[in-house]
Design a protein that fits this description.
By secondary structure, this protein is α+β, with helices and mostly antiparallel strands. It has 2 domains: 126 residues, Ribosomal protein L10, N-terminal RNA-binding domain (Alpha-Beta Plaits), CATH 3.30.70.1730; 34 residues. Helices cover 59% and strands 16% of the residues. The chain contains 6 helices and 5 strands; from the N terminus they run αβαβαβαββαα. It has a 5-stranded antiparallel β-sheet, with helices on both faces. β4 and β5 form a beta hairpin. α1 crosses α3 and α4 crosses α5. It starts with a helix and ends with a helix.
Length: 164
């Protein structure tokens, strides 16, 4: 039987996982085998630039924390797993997917986005969504187009009225 100090340490880690999971809008479990230390540092920097981070925990501790929260990610907890989390729904998925293109050793397993489970196919779909800034730019471009069309119509109408 484990000592009381070891059990307290494990419970502290479980509480940390539960805290990070409940505060995050998206979490992603991914396999990091085959990634070098320098590549892991590069990934961490890219994730932090998008207000996300990752950490490696023991699968048994993650399983306990997820069970306590009522989250079923058991299939993602096979083999070595890292845990990425963020306040942004799409940011960690995009960063991890882009990183996986250049580093095929990284494999996305499963995730939770806004409380809904996402398998590999769903994570790949989310990775294709433009960033929030990109979406806002597209919206602004569409709105500018409408205003431009309205101004052209009003100008043509005013010219027609002047000719009459």
């Amino acid at each position: 039987m484990a000592s009381k100090a070891i059990l307290e340490q494990k419970q502290a880690v479980i509480d940390e996982i539960k805290d990070r999971t409940s505060n995050a809008k998206s979490i992603v479990l991914f396999d990091y085998r085959g990634i070098t230390d320098s590549e892991a540092k590069e990934l961490r920097v890219k994730l932090r630039e998008s207000n996300a981070d990752y950490k490696v925990y023991k699968n048994t501790l993650m399983a306990r924390a997820f069970n306590d929260l009522g989250i079923d990610l058991a299939e993602g907890l096979t083999g070595p797993s890292a845990f990425a989390f963020s306040e942004d729904q799409i940011a960690p998925i995009k960063v991890l997917s882009d990183f996986a293109k250049d580093h095929p050793a990284l494999v996305l397993k499963v995730g939770i986005v806004d409380g809904e489970k996402a398998d590999q196919a769903k994570l790949a779909e989310y990775a294709t969504i433009p960033s929030r800034d990109g979406l806002l730019t597209m919206l602004a471009g569409g709105m500018i187009g409408l205003v431009r069309d309205l101004s052209i119509c009003l100008d043509l109408y005013s010219q027609q009225k002047e000719d009459n």
